Amino acid sequence: MGEPVVALDAMGGDHAPRETVAGAVMACRQMGMRVALVGRPQDVEAELARHGALPPGLEVVAASEVIGMDEEPARAAWRKRDSSIAVGLRLLKEGRAQAFVSAGNTGAVMAAAIMYLGRIRGIERPTLAAVMPVGRPVVLLLDVGANADAKPHYLLQWAQMAAAYMERVWKVERPRVGLLNIGEEEVKGNALAQEAHRLLKGSGLNFVGNVEGKDITRGVADVVVTDGFTGNVVIKTMEGMVELMKDMARQALAGHRRNLLALPLVLPALPFLVAAGAVVAPSVLELLHRTSWREYGAGPLLGVDGLVFVAHGRSDARAIRSALRVAREAARSGMLEALRQLSV
User: Fold this and answer.
1) Hey, do 5-123+303-340 and 127-293 end up sharing a CATH topology, with the first three levels equal?
2) Do residues 311 and 13 touch, judged by C-beta distance below 8 A?
3) Which whole-number Å values give the CA distances from 307 to 41, 117, 232, 294, 330, in the listed order?
4) Domain residue spans in the chain?
5) What's the fold here for domain 127-293?
């Protein structure tokens, strides 16, 4: 297999097309990738003109419509058949691309992916996973909002797909799977959690049992599975904590030397010190690099019959480059074939 083509929604995200185009140029120049930029040609080409001579492997595919971040997902996916999301997914369906990345309207990406790609046989509900920069090397949390209501066998299917993803893309041997719950004991939780525990325990997965919220960032499991309502609350709470830590870092650094006594307060906020203006040592810079969400790019939409990745709406060029890298790795790894062969 030659170098896979990754289709990128050039119009999706808070900073598109400036940052999406810049990220695609970076990916092609730095990693020799092949990227199909899907969007309004005049907008995409105007951004490309800012980057001088274009690298090989970059092409522009026209799409006349854009789905806004505030549009109703299913309706927009159905009505805007020439949107950058729809055109990119059709490239994937037709085999002209081997993966698709978007930082746009998440609900529209999911609705359009089901519409154009369909579900993998046996999968009842696709799931959206979030990649968290903790663990060995990351933790995959799912579902994070695609399915507010869930059934126990949904969680089993999601765990099976997530484990295959971690093995193929992140090279984690026999990923540890945990079930998010309110306690470690088997009898804890509501009816959904108790039945899901029974199914996971007998699944043949490397199931490590229930994990609590505090265990996610400790890396006790490589995959943490829950319903979409709970998962979304968890991920949004963590985002809020990030903002709090940024504020704490700024306040602690405001007084410079007189705030050295605040060092214990600052240490948990190390990933955000550069943004706050701190001068840090090379070892700390390495830590910042490893813990930055921008280095992990995008989360997979598992269960649709194609490789689809959803990046953060705030993605800048660096995050887009990382998302493209992860998508290429998935295409190279044979992940889709592995998912199709799961006994679900």
Assistant:
1) yes
2) yes
3) 24, 10, 22, 20, 7
4) 5-123+303-340, 127-293
5) Isopropylmalate Dehydrogenase (3.40.718)
Q: Model pTM?
A: 0.84
pLDDT in tens, 167-214: 998 899 999 999 999 988 888 889 999 999 999 999 999 999 999 998
Residue tagged 């689809």 (tokens): 308
Other C-beta atoms within 10 Å of 338: how many?
14
> 289-320 pLDDT, tens per residue?
444 555 557 889 999 999 999 998 888 999 99
Amino acid at site 142: L
- In CATH, which of 3.30.450.70, 3.40.190.10, 3.40.718.10, 3.10.180.10 is domain 5-123+303-340? 3.40.718.10
CB 12 within 8 A of CB 105: yes
**Exposed / middle / buried, residue 243 (Cβ in 10 Å: 0-12, 13-18, 19+):** exposed
Which of 55, 62, 15 lies closest to 33, judged by CA?
A: 55
